[in-house]
Amino acid sequence: MSKITNERTQAFREAFAKNSKQTALQRGVVKNGIRASAENMQAHVENTPVFSIDLATGKVANQKQSGRCWMFAALNTFRHRLLTTFQLKDFELSQNYTFFWDKYEKANYFYENILNTAEQSVTSREVAFLLQTPQQDGGQWDMIVSLFQKYGVVPKSVMPESSNSSNSRDLNNYLNKLLRKHAVLLRQMVAEDATAEEIQANREAMLQEVYNLLAISLGTPPAVFDFEYRDDEKNYHLDQGLTPQSFYEKYVGIDLDDYVSIINAPTDDKPFMKSYTVDMLGNVVDGKQVKYLNLEMAEFKTLAIKQLEQGESVWFGCDVGQSSTRDSGIMALDAYDVEDLFDVDLTMTKAERLDYGESMMTHAMVLTGVDLIDNQAKKWKVENSWGEKVGEKGFFVMSDEWMDEYTYQIVVRKEFLTPEQLAAFEAEPTVLAPWDPMGALA
């Protein structure tokens, strides 16, 4: 062991005080903060919000104080289609409706995992992982597909936002308390050799408690409703007696099985052109399996561009907090010059950041444009879900170099894949550990 001595610290103090550049930087950083002092205005100049391909999307949505970005991003891709097809203005699908069913299904999925690991000690890594966060707001693309296929969607006017969907902290806190209590009871029943019938009866009673908690907090999801609206030409429309499933079929009409998740994870344990899934990751029991195809970044970006060129936006996941300016909406590797500010080297490869816990997917958004110069992407237009007060009325600009380093997932139509890529995706996937960074929820 090598301890720090007082003499060593005093030497560091004296060396710092003698460096006039560092003391000058100290004055600025102490007063203004690290990011404000390190921000590079040249990144704004190089990432202007002008794109050769720029899809019409309408106004951005706002997830507010919740972790529903993956849900907002998916619903936004649907909204883009509805705005054009039905000549709607400022239309949104209900995020609260999908949020309700996601919480409900995640509770049941948690019970499934708790029962499957009931023979393990609570100190095992798997059980400890489950109990750390029984459920949360985040999710993956295939999880949202499971919800849409089972529950459909509804207009926001039919099930508006609630206090607890817009600010989900208390809901998550008390729902997780309830689920941990349920985990205690389920594990006790297994330890006491309860019958499958007894366990199922108790599980259904627990799920009723979850439903009640969600209904009180978020409202009751509609089973049948009318859709009333005026289009851009002020024409009145009324569609009566719809169910969430029939609304999806009539107004969205997308076959979600036509889409696949592509990742870029250049770590040694994930060879390219292979498919992967994550153990214990999901929300709907017997729902769509979370599955990815790992491709090199050049192929990854080619698929995204193909879909944008066809006029369709692209759901994607990234590590949004890395080198991005929230207020001005610039995502660029040189947005902040922190290395020069502190005179340190922070360089890591993308693989090293994944392996050492420095980066993972933290946020999902939508690619709605790209700037192609000589057939090469220079920057990308990003629709966020943080409202209109950030970025350019809610839209961000992502440099192509930033995409290389901090974007991890896109969702594209199968038709854009080569036969070799499609075969690789459809092969039996390698199962990753529950805590693998590719299992991170946006």
Explain what the structure shows.
There is one protein chain. This protein is α+β, with helices and mostly antiparallel strands and 442 residues long. The chain has 17 helices and 14 strands. It has helices at residues 6-18, 20-32, 34-38, 42-46, 69-85, 95-116, 125-132, 141-151, 163-166, 169-191, 196-218, 244-252, 297-309, 338-342, 350-355, 400-406, 419-426; strands at residues 53-54, 225-230, 236-242, 259-263, 274-278, 292-294, 314-318, 324-325, 330-331, 363-373, 376-383, 395-399, 407-413, 430-432. Strands 1, 4, 5, 6, 7, 8, 9, 10, 11, 12, 13 and 14 form a 12-stranded mixed sheet that branches. Helix 6 runs parallel beside helix 10 (169-191) and helix 10 (169-191) runs antiparallel to helix 11. The longest helix has 23 residues, at 169-191. It is globular, with a radius of gyration of 24 Å. The model has no long low-confidence stretch (mean pLDDT 97).
Q: Overall pLDDT, averaged?
A: 97
Q: What is the rounded Rg?
A: 24 Å
State which percent range the strand residues make up: 15-25%
* Largest sheet data: 12 strands, mixed
Task: Indicate the low-confidence ranges by residue numbers.
Answer: none
Task: Assign an overall shape.
Answer: globular
Could you tell me how far the N terminus lies from the C terminus, measured between alpha carbons in angstroms? 40 Å
In short:
Helix content is 43%, strand content 16%. The chain has 442 residues and is of the alpha+beta class.
List the topology elements.
Blueprint lengths: L5 H13 L1 H13 L1 H5 L3 H5 L6 E2 L14 H17 L9 H22 L8 H8 L8 H11 L11 H4 L2 H23 L4 H23 L6 E6 L5 E7 L1 H9 L6 E5 L10 E5 L13 E3 L2 H13 L4 E5 L5 E2 L4 E2 L6 H5 L7 H6 L7 E11 L2 E8 L11 E5 H7 E7 L5 H8 L3 E3 L10
Parallel strand pairs: 4-6, 5-14, 9-12
Antiparallel strand pairs: 1-10, 2-3, 4-13, 5-6, 7-10, 7-13, 8-9, 10-11, 11-12
